[in-house]
Amino acid sequence: MDQNTERTLIEARHALCACAERSGEERRTQAFIRAFIRAHTDLTLVDRGSWLYAKHDEGAPQTVVVRADHDAVPTADGARHLCGHDGHTVSLLGLGCLLKGKTLGKNVILLFQHAEETGFGAPECCELFALEGLTAENARIIGCHNIPGEPLGTVLLRRGTFACASCGVEICLRGRPTHAAYPENGVNPTAAAARLALELPSLAAEAGRKYGCMALATIVGMRIGERAFGVAASDGRLWVTLRAEKAEAFDELNRRTDEAVRAAAEAEGLAYSINRQDVFPATENDETLLSRLERCCAREKLPYRYLDVPFRWSEDFGWYGKYVPACFFGVGSGPETAPLHTEHYVYPDELAPITAELFFRFAAAV
Fold first, then answer.
1. 188-214: per-residue pLDDT in tens?
2. What is the mean predicted confidence (pLDDT) over 102-128?
3. What does the DSSP 8-state code read for residue 313?
4. CATH 3.40.50.2000 corresponds to the domain 3-163+282-365
């Protein structure tokens, strides 16, 4: 990549960082992406409203989709790019620059995805496969995430699961109010909520042992009743995040959670409801694609290593693997880079050109 293009990408990353937007609200971000593609690439732009993609069409029978996300993390001070999605997007824009005038013998689609942080973006963007006639026989998809603490530019590969499945679960327990002086006349959800708060982590441990993987149930919040000393509690909320490395363990943990809630509610005479949100399937790598990426790293003398364990955090990239072969990898963002989602995190300027080059080489290789 020439110095002018590198400088353009660094400036673009700063511009995107300055207009960080929450999931589902990425209007200025997408306007920037559209303007950049028209000004700096020869790609064909397809605008789907809440998301967009750009095509390098060679009329070839095979297509590689390269995906990047562009939403920011919500904070008390507004949206901020504390996960590096600004850098991911600029890396994909850099791929567009590198594709200009090139022939790879295949089509390349650059998928600019919204709303990764909430898990809503990828399911919507899966419309791409029907829109472009992409199937498991004629297409594959790759994507990546920057990884602080790892050497800058090092490719991180992982067999099987790269990032864990997870979901947020809200458990609502409804009893019957009564005067605090006569608790026997009401139905109080406190015992059931406390029982579940203790039981669910144990159920996760059992699922992990059964399937030989990591599984967690993390209690993230609880609310019972109100600050009204004359009225016994009658309503309760328990919030828990379920997480597992393997799909089988994740499915079992969800099923047993539902069973435990029903049993606890029935034992105390409570009505209940269970609501799930931020649902992320496991991001699992296709073995053939992974082998091709490894061979490309070895051939091009790119630094890489295999991860021993998956990341505990989740990535909605896992939805794409339900349609076409998919592979997700990490790229080291340097040992001095602050951890993701922390206040001091900043995507390194020099990483976007490196990742754009990786995207180009990997798209050619797979």
1. 999 999 999 999 999 999 999 999 999
2. 97
3. S
4. no
Rg of the Cα atoms in the chain: 23
Q: What are phi and psi of 235, to 5 degrees?
A: -130, 145
Using pLDDT thresholds of 50, 70 and 90, give the confidence band for residue 303: very high
For residues 144 and 355, the answer to whether their CB atoms sit within 8 Å is: yes
Distance (Å, whole) CA 217 – CA 254: 10
Q: Across the beta sheet with 215-224, what order do the strands follow? A: 215-224, 235-244, 165-174, 271-280
Q: In one letter, which amino acid is 85?
A: H
Output the pTM of the full model.
Answer: 0.95
Tell me phi and psi for residue 10, to 5 degrees. Answer: -65, -45
* Residue 316 tokens, joined: 């909605």
**Smallest Cα–Cα separation from 126: which of 333, 11, 281?**
281
Which 3 state secondary structure label does DSSP give 273?
strand
Q: How confident is the model at residue 296 (pLDDT cuts 50, 70, 90)?
A: very high
Residue 239 identity (one-letter amino acid): W
The position carrying tokens 């901020």 is 80
Distance CA 311, CA 212 (A): 16
Enter the tokens of residue 350: 């020099």
For the stretch 42-83, pLDDT in tens is 999 999 999 999 999 999 999 999 999 999 999 999 999 999
CATH 3.90.950.20 at 165-280, yes or no? no
CATH 3.30.70.360 placement within the chain: 165-280
Residue (of 135, 125, 9, 147) closest to 69 by Cα position = 125
First to last CA, the chain: 21
